[in-house]
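Changelog note: in this version the structure field was regenerated for every chain. One regenerated record is shown below for reference.
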Amino acid sequence: RVIAAKPVGFWPLDEASGTVRAKPLVGAQAGGYSKNTVPGRLTADDGRPAPWMDSSTTFAFIPHHDALLIDEGTVMCSFYCDSEVAGDQTILAKDRPGDNGDGHFRLFLSDKLKLFVRVETSKDTQELAIADLTPQTWYHVSVSVGSNGVCACLNGVKKKHDKNITTLFGPASGGSGNLYHMAIGVWHNGTAFVESLNGSVRDLVLFDRQLTAKEVTDLLTDPAPGEFAIDTDSWAWVVD
């Protein structure tokens, strides 16, 4: 079902080697892991592996591609956090200080495991608190940005809606848009990699349109025969 929905990119993040495989879709080129190797492995509820990230030197990344310069879009992934730490923990960042915040994006957890999304344009910045989370639990998060504003869903349930920002990574957000790579499990503050995730990220998907909460729920719970969906018990990709 997910592939049939025609995402721009889909990165399962379940590999055993140092290359992040990508489905052969527009903009979905392969990435890699720091140190060129998977930083440990976590076995999820469905038995599939996921990369274990627990320091600023253990993370994954996806190089920028011009196909990612989308003005409207939806970002979604599954993630797991082992425990609280003294500071924020980054799930996904296409962000770095500078260039007036043109299309910057970051999903992160606070020190009390509250889930946030931060979206920036050259004119505005919105940091939205999505939900309080429980450690050692797999979650699925989606953030859609477009003409209807920013909409965040957790496990397919709409949690937050803000109408102030209507553009994602593209040039409509300012300047040339967001040209940075996507960092998974860490954030680069302009000097160093910081605020790493004590946990895991898997099944990163990017659409070039703003999905509604119902469309997100359908992707999670209603696969077409032989297509992909997310198992609501493990938030992982399965074949129906």
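Spot check on this record: The two ends are 9 Å apart (CA to CA). Confidence is low (pLDDT under 50) at residues 224-228, 231-240.
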